[in-house]
Amino acid sequence: MSFSAPEAVLVADIGSSTLKAAIVTSDGRCLHRRSAPTVGGPDIATQDQEALWERTADVLAQVVAASSDPVDAIVVTGQGDGLWTIDRFGHGGIARQWNSVAGASTVEGWERSGIIDDHFRRTGTVLWPGTSAALWSSLRQSDPDVARSTRWILTAADWVTYRLSGCVATDVTNATIPFLDPWIRNWDGGSFSRLGCPELADLVPPVLQPGAPAGTLTRDAADRLGLPARTPVHIGCIDVVAQALGSGMRQEGDAVAVLGTTIAVTPLTRNPSLDGEPVGATVAWIEPGLHLRVLGSSAGGAVLDWFLDLHGYEHEDRYERFWADVASSHSESEIVLPFLYGERVPFLAPEATGAFTGLTPTTRRADLARALAEGLTMALRQCAESTGASNSLILTGGGASTPQWCQLVADVLNRPVIADTDPAAGMRGAASVIPGLSHLREVESRTRTFTPSDRTPILAQHYRRYQHLIDVLAPTWKESA
Fold it and tell me: Which numeric CATH code is attached to 248-421+451-481?
């Protein structure tokens, strides 16, 4: 089957808390953007796959209805890791996301036995509770009937691509964690047995190159979206790769920092070093021979949303009110460790918990907000220090549109940073994997540079306290677990 380069691509981006869609044109414009909350499962780290598909189809249909031009192709990007399944009847169940801690006890056992270190030396990826191997081990114990009925294990983008086209496949970027050998760009056959789940070797899908044809819309999907059934669907890529592509990552040593549900630093490298402390993941890049090191904290937007819900920040302007509170704080005593979901980078501690310290009778909500914003940004600094990236650092994700957070990043890291304020960068990057559209990676995004301010010295003191608190509390995490 052959496809000509499309003029208009319908892109879906399946995030941890929000799904987005838009039409990306061949000249780099992003039109008719729509979004909606994802559909949670029993807890914050799960998704109802069938309900999510229904909502995704609705959002895609809204984009199509808003456009007067034909859609030439469809591609999907989204959150990676986790455990998304299809049963033998083709139905999806309850997905466990990358931030799930359900596999924590399995990871602790792997750590004690040396499996995590061995796996990192082989693949460049550390195992954490939200990886499919750990989540599968948990599923076998908690719901063996679901495990027995599973036919395929996928990622978020794979699941939506399957519902669009009927194609069961993944791509080299999404497949990386945790079973792919990123150097041969295919499954590492021995990893399934090493991680205690040999049966998964028969449940993982074929690995394709991003942009490869998945087929065309099924009749049902075509009717739902209001498009012809002949519309081509292409294999996409993991969202951090899409974001890096759309934000102008050009050469080895460049790094993108994501300020979103995930807080991560992702440098591009040809020869990832696997000699030091095991940390992060190594994702196969679009072009063979290059790798994206993904240093992603378990802290991020989910922790921020927890704080907002807990302290009564409501309505559409709740983020603006949070950052207004941060700016109004005049206290310097409060420090936050934002490890509500454990931690995976720059240290692996599934048992880690969050902490507020330095509270006094004069502490206000605004002071807690400031401390939380700093704690999230200090987690980002720890990730950045683990990368060794020396070239430009580009901030992306929803937080890159918040000047206060971008300035805080420059101050905490004590280096200039470039904020990519284009909300469509990730979707444009996803479209760029389709053959004939690689030029979209060169489309200039809206950027703004932030340089360190006079708060840098006091934040350096806060960072030392932050690190000291981790050292002090780490032994108590294991005792509590």
Answer: 3.30.420.40
